[in-house]
User: What shape does this take?
Amino acid sequence: MIWSRIIGTGSYLPERVVTNDVLAQSMDTSDEWIRARTGIGQRHVAAPNQNCSDLAFEASKRALASAGIAHTDVDLIIVATSTPDVIFPSSACLLQAKLGIKGCPAFDVQAVCSGFVYALTIADKFLKSGQHRTALVVGSEVFSHILDWNDRSTAVLFGDGAGAVVLRADSHPGIHATALHADGAHSGILSVPGSICGGKVVGTPFLQMDGQAVFKFAVRVLEEVGRETLAMCGLAVSDVDWLIPHQANVRILEATAKRLGLDPGKLIVTVDVHANTSAASVPLALDTAIADGRIKPGHKVLLEGVGGGFTWGAALVEI
Ligand code: UT7
Assistant: This one.
């Protein structure tokens, strides 16, 4: 049996930090409101010339260094993003060129805030097929590009960043189980509805959201898919060492841990300092908690994504 294992992680945050107080200077909001409703204290914002593949490149170099492998060993590249550099080519192909890798398949996955869990699941299946051996799986986002900075109900929630993992085929797990879901009937509650046609933007190019509907949906499906994934590998909630849900809002994270019956001390929270970085949030949180020593080899980590589409999914990963 072939399994896949995470053998290295890396992440990158743009240099510029924007605090809630800075946002409150240009819109009708406050540090108190943002912290109380979301748990967010600050976010990183990319420079105007920094795109998805630039952030992905920095995170990938760090993940490859932590895995201790050469870039030429990579034989599959998947980038999860909803904010690609351009319509095409994919940010994965642009990343491949920046890394100096040639020939292996490279493609983007578009599942918004579930993107990393989707990409990890796809890579796991490629490796299990035996046709590929070493995958670079990245979540990279520049949501600052698609926010209306005059809309306080969305602008305060998001940040930019990238996280990457190197996945390697192994005779031991690794990734014990994954589960993915989507329900397009809920596409309207979180979207960027604009498109490009005939050289013009048709519709709004900015993120639109029904915050309360997203909140309720997220809490329900994060519990459901967590239980489903644990059942697939015959594990109980008490077997989980760490829970890393998509970092959207600390209230969503805490509600998910509570509904699962998980000790709140096992919840990894980075939304306070990264805000919501969409597809980058889970690998950013994973790298943060491995780097600071909380997640150790042998620990079982439940990764969960939920986002626009609507999409959701989870992966039970042994580090
Ligand atoms: O990856 C998934 C992405 N999306 C999410 O995770 C969002 C999920 N939803 C949420 O996190 C929450 O619904 C929000 C944080 C977006 C909003 O929190 P809420 O407790 O649901 O607040 P609300 O939308 O009911 O708004 C309450 C009040 C409103 O004022 P009125 O109508 O009561 O006078 C809003 O206009 O708060 C107002 N408000 C703000 N006030 C200060 C909305 N945004 C802000 C703001 N600063 N930034």
User: Anything to note?
Assistant: The pocket of oxa(dethia)-CoA is lined by residues 29, 33-34, 37-38, 113, 152-153, 156, 190, 209, 211-212, 214-215, 248-249, 276, 307 (CB under 6 Å).
